[in-house]
Design brief:
Length: 427
Amino acid sequence: MKRKIKKIAIPVLGILVCITGILSACANSNSESGNTAAPTDASTEAVKNPLEPVVLKLMLFGGKPIDLDKVLSKFEEITKDTLNTKLEFEYNPVPDHKQKVLLKMSTGEPVDLLFDAPWQQLYNNVSLGYYQQLDEYFNNDVYPGLKKAFPPEIIEANKINGHIYTIPFMTSYVDPSIVSIRKDIREELGMKSIKTMEELRIYYDKVLEKYPDYIPLPVGGRGYFKMFIPEEKGRKDIRLAPILAESFTGGIPFSVALSPDGKKVLGAATIGDPESEFAQFPAPFHTHDFIYGHFGTRTEWRKYSNKDPLSVAAVQALDPAKNVSGEGSLTGLARARSDLKKVVPNSDMEPFLYQSQEVRDMKPGALRTDFRSVNSVVIPVSSKYADRTMKFIDWLFSSKENHDLFELGIEGEHWIKDGDNGYKTTL
């Protein structure tokens, strides 16, 4: 498979995390993307002198990646005279990760680096004092890799209560939301490329009519991803409540209206509140149904989804050859297409960017960002090795070669160069 190496926001930990690419690290938009050389063991001032041996415990979710042990052996070989660090990974099944994090935090079991995010339990865990403040490590000449990779604007945007608790992970500033359409089935139905939500609905209706045993839009326990949900689009004057499968199980989340500079709360409201509670919200968020009307729309579209979406076994039993679309993000399209072709060789997938016509037309400013990361890792207060953990992270960002080892694997075994700015996987 041929890929281009991105000039900004280079992914990291991809081979370690192995969760379809959602974990990746933010690089400076001015960073260079030159030819790849061998990883180095003396790339920063922080690791010039050998350190005492240490084993860092990392806790992520997903399955153990193929050849992880080979990559870790290579890392240890390269850094034995500098970092002198070994990494031990614990991988949790996706549904269990949140509970296992809470269990370890409540018992004080040492963990040196773990995944948490706003869509998991990051804010709540920060308020409970579970995570260490990391301010001292960023914009610090002792950690030049971090200083180069994370400009002050990114760090400021990701602060919580005035402090940085996370190492933000981003593949890009914005990853457009899409519905991946089965192009081959669309053409069999005699339809042109999908351009609007109404055309998507017509496509699904035709699928149900001609292929009644097919699933127009399969969903799992997560439900819909972002379809029908209003977006903040980088605005500072609104904070919409998260809409996830568990959003309403531990209390009712509120949407909040803020002053234009985002520093003062003007109002707060949640689902079911009277219209008067939304009066302080900026247009077009100043009505109940603009924020929460998507629940009714999702109910109307339920007929296009599979039965028993909350059953893991039922979802896994679905025939991928009979799934005619899928909701996700643009960066996941290539993987979805590749996976589908393994089952249906003559198939193809194409994106429908459902967020807005402006996005589909690629108009300037159509995609906005507030530079907050949706994925990250943290250092729990139970860790005794915060400095050593951050030295490892600094090493990752200190050179493209180090970065490539953990993103792509071992050069020549897992990937080879393709021109000046690309690569091909060998697996």
